[in-house]
Amino acid sequence: MSENSNLANLAESLEDRKEAIANQWYDAIAPSTPDLAASDVKPQLTEWTGLVITLLRSTPLKREIARAIGESLVRDISPKPLVLSKTQEVLARQIVEGLPGEQVVLLLPHVLELLSEVAVGFVQEKDQLAESLRRKFLSTTSHDMRSPLNAIIGFSRIIMKGVDGPVTDLQSQDLETIYTSGQSLLKMIDDVFNIEKIEAGSIEIDAKTFKLEDLVGGLVSDVQPLIDEYGNKLEVEYTDAPDEIHSDPGKIKQILANLIARATKFTREGTIALHVVLADVEGADWIRFQVSNTGLGMTHQQIKRFTLVQSSGALQYDDIGLMVSQRLCQLLGGEIAIKSPEGQGTTFVVDLPTRHPGA
Hints:
Layout: H1 3-16, H2 18-29, H3 38-57, H4 63-77, H5 81-96, H6 101-160, H7 169-199, E1 208-211, H8 212-229, E2 233-239, E3 244-247, H9 249-265, E4 271-281, E5 284-293, H10 300-307, H11 320-331, E6 335-339, E7 347-353
Helix pairs in contact: 1-3, 2-3, 2-5, 3-4, 4-6, 5-6, 6-7, 7-11, 8-9, 9-11
């Protein structure tokens, strides 16, 4: 008897037992899905059993339909691996029930392929669900934490200014610590939120033509308090840099501010340098920003983590600001490289096209 004949006979046999298979399917997964009512689940399982029977009639196997069953299990039943395991166990047993050994051997590859594709759909949908929940949690948490943090930052500044009455020098120092710590935490929350927006593809590029001098001037004003906090000095140098470029000034400013902020963390009474230069990249004019410091260099492991920027490991870096900078730089068509002899300072090299690729 041919394989196609076996499949046809098997499908007919399974059709007669469709309701029984659906009931066994439900009994197998019910203990791990106690919140689901039998009246809701059994009709779905009966429908999917019918799809399985249809698939066993088809040669070659329609993978997209088999995967859809796995995806439906996650969405409609449960993303628990035990549900997939019990599903495969019930279907495999029921498909070959009562068949002679030689027919089981003939059909086994087809059955295994079917169950394998169901598993692929299950795993893919489970991963997408987990990623969706992760992004929703981080986005909501980031938003909810901003309000109390802004209140802490704002009221600490009000008290420091003496609006509510005089404060002692010691109290002023404590308030300054509260204020700066609140600002640091708020920036971390914003960075996490930005990572989620970038990975979700919801970051928009606002490219325009602007003067480099204006961008750098605004940047220096923004980062000067960080520079002063640890007794550092900031040096800015231009070498053959163009007067204007066409890109997103806000994103570039954010990239450079993050890199300078990191440089200040590891430099005390030293120098932070920003060098702006026209660079040649594969025969095209690019703008290069070099942010250097005289503090501690990065370890080989830190550099390796930074250069392996992958979405799956987005929250495993020791400095989320570096991740944000690299992702934003890539969105602008560029890249960030690191030069860091351990213990001898670090130089971040930001290369960007003088005209955004999407312009």
